[in-house]
Amino acid sequence: MAKRPTVYDVAQAAGVSIATVSFSFRQPERVRESTRQAVLDAARALNYVPSASARGLAGGRTGALGLYSFDMLLEAAGSRGARPVREDPGPFYGGDLAERAFADDADSEDFRVFPLYVDEVQRGFELECARRGRALLIGRGPGGDGAGVIDIASRVDGLAVFPGARSQEVLDQVARRLPVVAFAMPYGPGMLHHVRVDNAGGARALTEHLVRTHRIDEIEFVGAPEMTDYAERFDGMRDALRELGLPAPQRVLDPTPLGAEDPFPVVRDLVTSGRLPRALVCASDQHALDLVSLLRRLGLSVPGDVVVTGFDGVAAGRISSPSLTTVRQPMEAMGRLAVDILMNSLADDVSGVVDRTLPVRPLYRESCGCAWER
Predict the structure, then answer these.
(1) Which domain holds residue 102?
(2) Which terminus of the chain is more exposed, N or C, with fewer CB under 10 A?
(3) CA separation (Å) from 306 to 220, 270, 313, 317?
(4) Do 205 and 98 reside in the same domain of the chain?
(5) Number of structural domains in the chain
(6) pLDDT band at 306, cuts 50/70/90?
(7) Where are the beta strands (DSSP E) in 108-218?
């Protein structure tokens, strides 16, 4: 087996000290940006990941697993519709911090931002770590140069990741050092393990339901297909339409990404011109819930004027009005399965890469015209 690169190799390649290499990963604010970039470039070229055992951990194991999100979390405070904390929270019991937290909770009515898909998967991951007696380290950050995920990988024995748009290269690098499970990422060559769901099958079931049960023959897709999951859902919708003898759109109707500051411009234009399709299949529940709010502000009824469906099965869809027709992912099971794969990898019980696709379950509720269904 080839000798693994060390901090000394990176320091030599970047022309810096080993302390600078360490600071570049652990305390980047102490390093000039150009120097840090040179260190990261050298680490990438050498496939270097800092080693926890190099920090003196016994046996080369940390006893911890990691969970990292690149771009998939939404901040409640910055979400559309969330209210700011009151300047004067009133006579609540507890200290200032407790009062402010209580005021924030009481004043925020945007239930759509938590828990989301990543929160429910994380819960399953946490529960399984606790059951197996493993510590858990959680990290998050933008795709960028990958320094954040490399740093957390240096502190754990195995890592599960919600990938971002530019994360493939850095994840391949990390997977050479320790087992890595990627959620919602297509299987490909390399050493990454995968946990996915049947996105195409779920979208196909939704589409068939709209056509066969509700006699809808004009169906379009909303949401930017930047994530593999979203692209697979769009393809599943199109496949169902073709199989049913209906025209399948070549492009997404409105490619609004999650968290867009000016969401659904195409939908708004179609509402104004009176040319909105009868049904809109959304890339995610978050898209769908935001879209329903927009349509109601524009004076349209869901499902009376337009049918809206989601995908994920987050809790907000159950309590929204109308309740959201969607596809439920087994999110807790996904988190638990990721821990199982990592533990088996560490015990050398896994031969080769694991690629698991879990089934999904359609939930037909009020937003498509059905009675409320759990």
Answers:
(1) 76-112
(2) N
(3) 11, 12, 20, 17
(4) no
(5) 3
(6) very high
(7) 135-140, 158-162, 180-183, 193-197
